Amino acid sequence: MDMSSGSSGTDGSVGNNDGGGTEDNSGVDTPGSGTETIKFKSPIRIGDDIDYNGTHDDNFIINTPDGIVYSESFALSDGFSSGTLKYTIAGAMEAAQIYMNGSLVGRSCNPGNTAYAKKECDPIDVTSQLKSGNNTLKISCVLYLPDNITPYDDIEIYDMRLVLER
Predict the structure, then answer these.
(1) DSSP labels for 90-155?
(2) Has residue 11 been placed in a domain?
(3) Most buried residue, 69, 98, 116, 132, by CB count within 10 Å?
(4) How far is CA 21 from the centre of its chain?
(5) What mean pLDDT value characterizes the chain?
(6) How far apart are CA 89 and CA 83, in angstroms?
(7) Could you give the CA distance from residue 82 to residue 166 in angstroms, rounded to a whole number?
(8) How is 57-99 classified by DSSP, letter by letter?
(9) Strands 82-90 and 155-165, bridge-based pairing
(10) Helix or strand or coil: residue 55?
(11) 49 part of a folded domain
């Protein structure tokens, strides 16, 4: 995850992917004056089916999940007026829980129970949970009770980003 302000490049913010995957160091967009976008790893693959693509007709981009929880830390400077999480999800039958700094801020949309079912979810306003300094985004799978072999819902999240207004 990288972050920049204006045209200054990355600021060396520390990202933490507790799930063991790699980070997407694609940079930060500044689509308009006063807007900053922090991009997180993409795709984020969580669940408990370690060979999803081998046992299903539909396929995720990443076969083996990072675990049932994804977490990444990032630093913010002062001066933002709002923050909104935006993302696309695939394979969600049950709503994954999304946390910012330990507080539940929302649940994912549910496009359907296949890797082919993708949907851009409604944005989540996280303004009240953000702070200057270190922040942590966490996404947690939930139980899909009809499945007693791999009971956690396997999902893939694309283009997870935090859009800040300054």
Answers:
(1) ES-SSPPEEEETTEEEEE-----SSTT-EEEPPPEE-GGG--SEEEEEEEE--B-TT-SSS-BPPE
(2) no
(3) 98
(4) 13
(5) 85
(6) 20
(7) 7
(8) SS--SSSS-S-SEEEEEEEE-S---EEEEEEEEES-SSPPEEE
(9) antiparallel
(10) helix
(11) yes
Does the structure show a pLDDT above 60 at 2?
Answer: no
Residue 5 confidence (pLDDT): 38
Structure-token match 């204006």, residue found: 6
Terminal Cα distance for the chain, rounded: 19
Is position 16 within any domain? no
In a domain, 129, yes or no: yes
Report how far residue 33's alpha carbon sits from residue 50's, in angstroms, rounded to the nearest whole number.
43
The domain in which residue 151 lies consists of: 35-165
Mean pLDDT value across residues 67-75: 98
**Residue 9: what residue type?**
G
Structural domain tally of the chain?
Answer: 1
C-alpha distance from residue 33 to each of 27, 30, 111, 165 (Å)? 17, 7, 33, 9
* CATH number of the domain to which 43 belongs: 2.60.120
